[in-house]
Amino acid sequence: LSTTESLTFDDYMLTVTSADFDGDGTGEYLLDVERSPLQLPHYQMLLVVRQDAPGAYRPFLSPELWSASQYLYFGGRGGILSLHSVRDVTGDGLPEILAVRQIEGRDQTFMRLYVLGWQDGTLADLTNGETVYQTWIHTDPLPLFDSWTFSTTASGEPVIEQREPFFDNWGCTGERIEQFTWNGRLYLRSSF
Q: What is the dihedral of CA 78, 84, 97, 183, to 10 degrees?
């Protein structure tokens, strides 16, 4: 289980979540750092800090989870990095970090789900970059976490279901559904 505290200073908001990501019995700290000058999101970053010895801490940067949102100043749209939750979604009893990165351009939106977990002594992306999609449908605000659901198969393997809205040039809309099944190390795209 995890606990969360928030701290605000100058233009920064720091949210700290304590959880045992590596299973050694000692809690690590997930730092969600956001800098918002003039009340506009400008910079966000997630990192995990682990205590290696009494008084000695080491940071582990989250793979690719850094977002600069300067585009917000010009077009009202930009990159958004949203921490969703810290919970076990692989069935190993250790918590993973669930986050979504959304990047909006002039006519499209790209969204990517990150499932970050401890592997081989570091923080790793357990989706291997597979859970990304582009949509041409804009809603305000975009339902970031409604696109993915977590469940298990009939045989008990964890699975992520990704729902991607789409439309064509005749005005027809629909939804593409993909599944990503946990193989013990990664969530991999599967067919069903």
A: -100
Q: What is the DSSP string of 47-109?
A: EEEEEEETTEEEEEEEEEEEEE-TTHHHHS--EEEEEEEEE--SSSSS-EEEEEEEEE-SS-E
Which residue, chain included where needed, has tokens 């050694």?
24
Residue 88 tokens read as 């076990």
Strand partners, 97: 86, 116
**Which residues contact residue 95 at a Cβ distance below 8 angstroms, ignoring those fewer than 6 apart?**
2, 19, 20, 21, 86, 87, 88
Determine the Cα–Cα distance for residues 155 and 152; give it in Å rounded to an integer.
8
Q: What is the pLDDT of residues 62-116, one digit of tens each?
A: 665 555 544 444 444 445 677 888 999 999 999 999 888 776 666 666 778 889 9
Model-level pTM? 0.80
Most distant CA atoms of the chain, gap in Å: 63
